[in-house]
Each structure stands twice: as structure tokens, then as C-alpha cells.
Amino acid sequence: MIKKIIARNFKGSVFSQELSWFNIFIGPNGSGKSTRTMALELAVNGCLSDIKQNGLIFDAYSGGGKASMYVGFESDNGSEIGRKYFKNGETVSCNLLVNNQKYSKEDFTRAIINSGDPAVFDMEGFFSLTDSKKIEYLFSMYSKDDGNKFREIVGKIEDIKSSLQKARRSVKISQGIIERSRESLIADNYDPDDPNFLEKIASEKKRLKETISALELKDAEKKHERIVAERVEKSADDPEKVTNSESIHKADKPVGDIACSCGKCDKNGFKEKMGIILSVMEKTGCRHCAAMIVAKKMLREE
Length: 302
Description:
57% of the residues lie in helices and 14% in strands. The chain is of the alpha+beta class. It has a six-stranded antiparallel sheet with strand order 2-1-3-4-5-6. Strand 4 (80-88) and strand 5 form a beta hairpin. The model is unreliable at 241-261 (pLDDT under 50).
């Protein structure tokens, strides 16, 4: 953190400006607001906007007639870091100072980094840049690691924005489905706002389930009847094939005498055939339709 801005003969001013966490400079024109911010920019960056040559900086901001000019800052680690510009014959030199001791460029840069590596934003110069240069300028204010972290954060923000857009689309689709379902329910005389709506839906669901179960049972009965009829017909056409099963010959319930006035029943084995049929019918649990069909057929044969 920068605790103080220091300047001597910078734009004709000499000051030592204390700073806190947050600072606003207020005053009339010429009171030194921009002088303080420019002094800090020069002390940290070593240039002002696009002016980088020592001679141009000194001629523009030394206040005229002065042999030297100094700008610096004091950090919270107690170090004072500054730049002293002075005439050296026909040229202008700049000494890099840390606690008033001359440092090499590498050591001076290291001292700035150790002081918290402050960055000063040049608002005037920033707005004069192209869009691509503005981006470069912003990244130049951070270290390489900070720049990578910044890019990573930007990437995460973009991912979150994309996820939010997908979520909004999903919500919109869901709202459309809900609205169409609501319209369909209302068309079928179901009002979703009715307090008994859920009870009515449950009742209708139960009714449909019972209807489906009844239809399935009816289909099963028809299928069962067809299977029984086929088996009985086979047993009537080929008694020997069926009588291989002891369950057919030995019915659980004795078959009573079946009388016929044709006088041929006993000779043609009518009773035996009818016994087989009735045994099969008793085993399958059916004593009606299929039996009648087979009986008529056997009577025609007899």
C-alpha cells in the first residue's frame, strides 16, 4: 500500500501528500489535484502517458529553471522509492533511488515489487487507446500469474453465463409445457385452480386403471376360451393322443350316464368320448361354450 506521495519541483510544486485506503482529491483548478496523481504515476511507471524520454519529461514538468526534479512514494513497509531527474550537460539523467540511495534498474524494480508492486491507472492515456491496446494496458497492470488468474475468472464467468442461458431456455420450455397441459386440462373440464383438482385427477386415474384391467381380463378370458376349445377339439378328434395323460382318464369326479335314443351310443363309444370331453372340461374349469361346440360336432359324427 502507498502511504505517501512525495514531489519536489514537479510542475512547480513541492509536497508530501499522506494517503489512506481510499482518497479523493478535491479543489479548484490549479490546486494540485492532477499534479499529485501525475507525480505518483511518474514515480511508479517512470513515464507519463506516452512521454517516456527523460529530457521531454523534465522539460515538460520541472517547472522551468530548476536543476532537478524529484517524484516518489512511501510504501507501508517504510521504504521511500523515487526518481530524480537532473540536467547533465545537454542531456537529462534519472537516478533511481530507494531511501535516497542509488539503485540499478533491476534492484529498483525489485524494490518496487517488494513494496507491494503498486499499479497506477492512467485514465487520460487509457481512453486515448484503441480497444486492443486498452486490453493490453489492463493486463500489463498485473503480473503474469495475476493475468492468468484473471483470464481463468473471466472464463468461469462466461461458463456461468452460458449455464444461465441454458437454464432460462429450459425454464421457458417447461413453462410452455405446463401452459399447454393446463389448457388441455381445462378443455377436458379439469380446472387446475380447483381445490379438488388433485382428487379428481386421482379418481380419473383409478377409473382408467380399472377400465384397463377389465379389458385385459376380458381379453385373457377370450384367449383362455380359444385355448380350451382347441384342446377339447383335439381330444375329441384323437382320444388316444390325449389319453396318454392320466389326468384325463381319471377324472376327479365320476361322469354320470349319458342317455341317447339313437341306439348306437354304446356301440360307437359315445359315452367314452363324452367322458373324455367332460374330464378335460373339468380340468380346465370350463363347462359351457366349448363343450357345446364339441358335443354338436360329435353328435353329427355319430
